[in-house]
Design a protein that fits this description.
The complex is a heterodimer of chains A (548) and B (78). In chain A, 28% of the residues lie in helices and 27% in strands. Chain A is an alpha+beta fold and 548 residues long. Chain A folds into three domains: 3-83 and 118-191 and 291-370, FAD/NAD(P)-binding domain (3-Layer(bba) Sandwich); 200-288, Alpha-Beta Plaits; 438-540, 3-Layer(aba) Sandwich (Glutaredoxin), CATH 3.40.30.120. In chain A, the strands form six sheets. In chain A, strands 1, 2, 8, 9, 10, 11, 19 and 20 form an eight-stranded mixed β-sheet that branches. Chain A has a seven-stranded mixed β-sheet with strand order 6-5-14-15-16-13-17. In chain A, β5 (89-94) and β6 form a beta hairpin. The longest helix of chain A has 28 residues, at 345-372. The radius of gyration of chain A is 24 Å and the shape is globular. Chain B has 78 residues and is mostly helical. Chain B has a domain at 34-60. Chain B is 62% helix and 0% strand. Chain B has four helices and no strands. Classes of the chains: A alpha+beta (548), B mainly alpha (78). Chain A binds chain B through residues 376-378, 381-382, 384-386, 388-389, 393, 395-396, 399, and chain B through 32-33, 36-37, 39-41, 44, 71-72.
Chain lengths: 548, 78
């Protein structure tokens, strides 16, 4: 399927009277993911896009493990991973010398790699195909939102189509319409942050090369002196090369093929993996970037997600990947509000959790950018000192920052978390995104833990019988995964074949880990009571708790 | 463990003489670069973020007012 050349028809339609529960604005990766997640939860959703094509050029190419795990729940993970280039290792070079190597997934027992590289339009193409399978997802191309009128209990959108303008009323509107969000503008909201004084050229080049599927980053390479270069492998013999140009570069001039080709040739001449290979230029763009966010992601009945709410530098792949986490965080909460299972306050938790995540992403992205594009003479002095020392002193390699790559944000301090009352070790603290492990069904089938979690709340319980029986009383609201050690299979239980579930979640017999519908941990206990589990589910739904 | 600001150097005069001598023959840029490497090496030796923060604050509080206003001496146009 050639996703890049697809054009989607605009279908004229008479707008039925009445309100839509949810209208999502923008059919990029974030809007599509949100609309699919809502439709899969039986929420009828209208998705509007002002264009009728997928994104032009490869754009975002690095999709993180957490994003792939969310895509698995949306039904497109397998197809994407099959098509993408999986990678875990990054290398940083100073001139021609390797100074730092990192492995983002150094342990086995995970279904998904740390990253795949695949062009954004391929991700969008698979999401659109999935969206088209869902009867309650109404995807409307060539529908541009030209005005947004917020009211106390609904929103009215003015939508321009090739057939003229009409109004669409919605209980809730989610703006996923990108860094130049129209909806954000209609509300008079402005993002705040820093713009960096640097320019970068990205060139997608088709060529034969035998470099491994790794992320390669050069500081001051001989083929591009005094600046940085980033190389990523994409599917189909396409390579992404990102050249730092400096603030004074002329973007129009740099975009011309006759100026790009010598830069690529210089890289190829210096790299044993590519020496003298023939290549063709597929796509190129010159960009600058800002690290910024909206102060609040919820404004009454309008919520903002993805680039409409926050922006980061590309170093760390934290743009699209954090937007997908936004969509995943919001979908179950909005569905719960519309079902009447949660009060509106749960949407404030979306805003707070993802605002904090945006701060974390901006902090990492800003630090990487300050290293790559030093912002003061002192910053340049220390950056060069770090690179100088990194050649001979291992400690300095930990300071080399070419981008700290996207992982799931741990929602520390969220009001949906039940703080630990019992002692636990390990990373699966309240707020953490559930981590994968191999498990075996009672009938011997092999499976992955994350694939077995429910659409609603789930609980991992290291079996003792009484605790498991107590949890099962919460069905169907709660999916219970009973975990038994290898060698002692039990009916209805999953065998922890590598011991990784117990190790990663610090389980002992009777331990329970409660997971939200977006698979973030929200509570854990050594031997919970029924009331403790009840309260934790209520708290994670922002429902008022009974008075003690 | 707080930052040690009471005398702690084994041999203060020897250290000071060797610190200055290490810079002999370097121009200002090279001296700045050497100092930056030295800060990083010593920071790694200290290790603890709370102690390093105290050291950063103590060093910053010694900056003169005109040094705290601008980030670095910048040549003015004209």
């Amino acid at each position: 399927m050639d996703f890049q050349s697809l054009e989607f028809p605009h279908r004229p339609q008479a707008e039925a009277p009445g309100r839509r529960p949810v209208v999502v604005v923008g059919a990029g990766p974030v809007g599509l993911a949100l609309a699919i997640a809502l439709a899969q939860r039986d929420v009828p959703v209208v998705l509007l896009d002002n264009d009728n094509r997928l994104s032009s050029g490869s754009r975002a190419i690095c999709f993180a493990k957490r994003t792939l795990e969310i895509f698995d729940r949306l039904g497109i993970g397998d197809a994407l991973v099959a098509q993408g280039v999986s990678w875990n290792v990054g290398k940083v070079f100073l001139r021609d010398e390797l100074v730092y190597r990192f492995d983002l997934l150094p342990e086995p027992g995970h279904e998904r790699p740390a990253f795949i590289n695949v062009p954004q339009y391929v991700v969008e193409g698979h999401l659109v195909q999935r969206a088209q399978q869902l009867a309650n997802l109404d995807l409307r191309w060539k529908n541009e939102v030209v005005d947004t009128h917020p009211h106390d209990d609904h929103v009215v959108l003015t939508v321009r189509t090739p057939d003229g303008e009409h109004s669409v009323e919605a209980d809730w509107v989610v703006a996923c319409d990108g860094s130049r969000s129209a909806v954000r503008g209609h509300l008079g909201l402005q993002t705040q942050g820093r713009t960096f004084r640097d320019r970068f050229l990205i060139a997608d080049v088709r060529m034969q090369g035998d470099a491994p599927a790794e992320r390669w980053f050069w500081f001051d390479p001989a083929f591009h002196p005094n600046r940085s270069v980033l190389l990523h492998r994409q599917p189909g013999g396409v390579w992404r090369i990102d050249f730092q140009l400096g603030w004074d570069a002329d973007p129009e001039r740099e975009k011309k093929p006759e100026n790009i080709i010598p830069r690529v040739k210089a890289l190829l001449a210096h790299s044993p993996a590519f020496r003298d290979t023939a290549f063709t230029l597929e796509w190129a763009s010159v960009y600058t970037f800002s690290c910024q966010r909206l102060e609040r992601f919820r404004h009454g009945r309008v919520l903002l997600a993805g680039d409409a709410a926050h922006g980061v530098s590309p170093f760390g792949a934290r743009g699209a990947n954090s937007g997908i986490q936004d969509a995943d965080n919001l979908a179950w909460k909005l569905a719960a509000v519309l079902r009447g299972d949660a009060p509106e306050a749960v949407l404030d938790s979306y805003a707070r959790e993802r605002e904090a995540a945006a701060d974390e992403n901006i902090r990492h992205s800003t630090r990487a950018t300050d290293f790559i594009t030093p912002r003061s003479p002192a910053s340049l002095l220390f950056r060069d000192a770090v690179l100088h020392l990194a050649r001979t002193h291992p400690f300095a390699r930990t300071l080399v920052n070419s981008g700290r790559l996207s992982t799931a944000t741990t929602l520390h301090g969220s009001t949906l978390n039940t703080p630990d009352a019992d002692a636990f070790e390990g990373a699966m603290v309240p707020g953490a995104a559930a981590i994968d492990a191999r498990v075996t069904h009672a009938d011997g089938r092999e499976a992955w833990l994350l694939r077995e979690l429910g659409d609603g709340f789930s609980a991992l319980v290291a079996v003792d019988g009484r605790t498991e029986a107590m949890l099962r009383e919460f069905a169907p609201e709660l999916r219970v995964l009973a975990i038994v050690p290898a060698g002692s299979p039990a009916d209805g239980a999953f065998t922890d074949r590598d011991g990784a579930v117990a190790r990663r979640y610090d389980l002992r017999p009777g331990s329970v880990v409660l997971l939200r519908p977006d698979t973030h941990v929200c509570a854990r206990w050594r031997h919970p009571t029924r009331a403790q589990v009840r309260d934790a589910i209520d708290r994670a739904s922002a429902r008022p708790l009974p008075c003690p | 463990m707080p930052l040690i600001t009471a005398p702690n150097l084994e041999s203060p005069d020897d250290f000071y003489a060797e610190l200055v001598a290490t810079h002999d023959g370097l121009d200002a840029d090279a001296s700045h670069a050497l100092n930056a490497r030295l800060v990083l090496l010593l920071a790694n030796h200290v290790g603890r973020l709370d102690v390093l923060r105290e050291a950063l604050a103590a060093a910053r509080s010694g900056a003169r007012p005109e040094e705290t206003r601008g980030s670095w001496p910048v040549p003015r146009p004209g």
